[in-house]
Amino acid sequence: MNTNSRPTSHPTSGDINAFAITPRNAPSDSVAPGAVLRAEGITKSYVIGGTARKVLDGLDFRVDYGESVFLAGPSGSGKTTLLSILGLLLTADSGELFLRERRVDALSAEERSQVRRDSIGFVFQRFQLIAALSARDNVAIPLTLHGHPLHQARGKAEELLERVGLRDHRLALPGSMSPGQCQRVALARALITEPALILADEPTAALDGVAGRAVMELMRELTTNFATATVVVTHDPRIFPFADRICEMENGGFK
Amino acid sequence: MRWNLAYRTLLHDRGKLTAGLVGVIFSVVLVNLQGGLFLGLMGKTSTLIDRSDAQIWVGHRGMRNVDFAHPFPERWQYVVAGLKGVDQVEPLRVEFAEMSMPDGNFETVVLVGVQEDSDLGRPYEIVTGPADALQKNDAVVIDDCDQDLLRDPALNELREINGRRIRIAGKSHGVIGFLANPYVFTRYEQLAELTGFDRRDTSYLLVQLKPDADADAVCEAIEARLPDVSAMTASQYAWTSADFWIRRTGIGLSFGAATLLGLLVGLVMVGQTLYAMVLDRVSEYATLRAIGLNERELLSVLIMQSAIVAIVGIAIGFVLTVVLQGALSTPKATIEIPTLLYLGCGILIFVICLVASALPYLRIRRIDPHVVLQG
C-alpha cells in the first residue's frame, strides 16, 4: 500500500460538544479493531475517444473505524472514481473491496443498494437535496428506508437538525436555504442512520471559507461522536487540518 | 416516505402537475361524453320499445329494427293471448308516411298507430294539448323536439299525411328516434286510413305477462305456435334494434375511435408529464439511488405519482362531465352516462395512468447513481 499519511491535529467546534451519542460503529472491546473499508488492487479504465485510459492502477486503500482520510490531488488523478468505487456506485475492473470484512465488490446492483443503505452515508459537492422536501424530510429519508415510520424518522431528523444548528429551518425547502445550510442538511442526512462510513465528495467546494470550515468542524464532530469512518475527496487545502490522514493521488495511484 | 416524496414532488412542480391533470381530465370528459353520446344515440334506436310497457314484442320473423316493421296478420294476437303466461296483448302499427309542409315540401315521418285505450303501446305523454288529443277526428300527436323539422306546426294546425287531412291535436316532448324522421302518433285505425295499411294486418303485438310468467319461455312458445313471427323480450329487442344500427352504420367504430383518441391523449400526457418530471430530477433520482433506494422503490414512487394524478384528474373530470352533461344534453343529442360508464371510464383511465408510468420508469432504470459524484 502506497499511501502518504499526514497525521493532523483536529480542530473542535465549541457549539456541538453537547452531543451525547453512543457510537454504534466502534468495534467492541472483544473484537480486534480493523478496517471499516479495505480495497486491494483496484483498477479502473475508461474508454475515451476509442482509447482505454487507466484511471486507477492497482490501488490499495483502507480506512479504519473512526478514521478520517482525505483524498487529495489534481483533477483527473482518480479521486472521484476511487470514491465512487468505495461507495459501490461504480464497479472496478479488477480488485477486491471489503466493507466491515464483507467482500462487496462482486455484489448485484440490488445488493449494492442495500449495502449503501445500511452502511454508507454520502455528502455530495452540490448537496443533492430533494428540492420538494423540507430539510427535515430530506434528513429523514435514509431512516425511512430502514423501515422507520415517517413520524419517528422526522423526530430523529429534527434532533439531528438541532445539532447542526438548523432547528428553525427544519421545514424550509432547500431552495430557500444558503449553500452552507444545505450542506449541513446533507451532512445530517448522511449521518442519521449512523453509518459505518461517510463518503464526502468535495463537501466544501460550493461553500465560502467560513461555511466550509463550519461544515468540516461539524462533520468532524459528528463522525467522532458516531465513530464513523470518513473518506473525503477535496481540492481544498484549508480543510486538510481536519484529516487524520491525507492520501495524495496522481495519475491513478497514490504518491 | 415514498408517499411523502411522491406527492410533494408532484406538488412542487405545479406546472407539470397541471399538464398531467389536464390530460387526465380531458380523457375523462372525452370518454364519458363520447360514451354518453353513443349510449344516448343508441337509446334512440329503441325509443318506442323503451317507452312502452310491453314485456314482449312480437313482430314478423327476422325483425331487426323497431322502426322498420313488416306487417303480419293482426288476428294472431288471439293465438298469443291464449298462451300460458300471457296476460294482455295489444297490436301496434308502424309505417312510414309523408307529411305536407306549409311551404309545399314534404317530410317523411314514422307514423305510429296506437290503440286509444292502450295500456302498453303509448310511448308518449302529451305536454301541449288535451290528454285525450288522439280521440279527436283526424288527430295526430307530434313531438315538440321536431318543431323545426315539421316547420313549427301550431296546435290544431291542419296538415296532410299522404294527401289526407290531419290535425295537430297534441304535442309530446322528447320522443325522438334514431332516424332523422319524426315520430307522429295517431290512432291505430287511423294509421290504416292514412297509409293504406291493410286493416287485417299489424306491425307488432305487444305482450304483457302474468306476474310469475317466464318471458323467455313465453317467447319460445309464441315462436313455436307462430313460426312466421319473432318474439323477443323488450330488452332483447332494444338491443337488436341498437345492434342493427351499430352494424349497418359503423357508428360504434367512429365513437370508439374518438374514445380511444381520448384515452390515448390521457396516456401520452400523463406519461409525458411524468417523464418530464423525471428528466428534471435525474439528479435527485440518482441521489436516491446512491443513498440506497432500489429500482422497485423508485418505481413505487412513480406509480404513486401516477395514481395521484389519475385520482385527482378523474375526480375533477367527473365533476366537469356532470356539468357539461347538464349543459349540453338535449332530447335530440342525449348524453346518457350511466354509473357503470363512469366506473368503467374511471378504472380504465386509472390503469392507463399506471401504464403511463412505464415511460419514466424506463428512464429511471438508466439512471446511474455514479452521476451524483460527477458534478
From TrEMBL, chain A:
Could you tell me the superkingdom of the organism this chain comes from?
Bacteria
- Span list, region Disordered: 1-25
Pfam family for this entry, one: ABC_tran
UniProt keyword annotations, A-Z: ATP-binding, Nucleotide-binding, Transport
Read off the SUPFAM superfamilies from this record.
Answer: P-loop containing nucleoside triphosphate hydrolases
Domain (ABC transporter): residue spans on this chain: 37-255
Instruction: Give this protein's Gene Ontology molecular function annotations.
Output: ATP binding; ATP hydrolysis activity; transmembrane transporter activity
**Is Transferase among this UniProt entry's keywords?**
no
**Per the record, where are the segments of Polar residues compositional bias?**
1-15
Gene Ontology CC annotations of this record: plasma membrane
The protein's name: ABC transporter ATP-binding protein
**Organism encoding this protein:** Roseiconus nitratireducens
Automatic annotation (TrEMBL), chain B:
Give one Pfam family. Answer: FtsX
Which residues span the membrane?
A: 20-41, 255-278, 298-328, 340-362
Q: Output the InterPro entries linked to this UniProt entry.
A: ABC-4/HrtB_transporter, ABC3_permease_C, MacB_PCD
Its annotated compartments are: Cell membrane
Recorded GO cellular component terms are: plasma membrane
Keywords from the named record: Cell membrane, Membrane, Transmembrane, Transmembrane helix, Transport
Bilayer topology annotation: Multi-pass membrane protein
Q: Where is the ABC3 transporter permease C-terminal domain?
A: 258-369
Instruction: Tell me where on the tree of life, at the top rank, the source sits.
Output: Bacteria
**For the MacB-like periplasmic core domain, which residue ranges apply?**
22-224
Question: What is the protein name for this chain?
Answer: FtsX-like permease family protein
Q: Which organism is it from?
A: Roseiconus nitratireducens
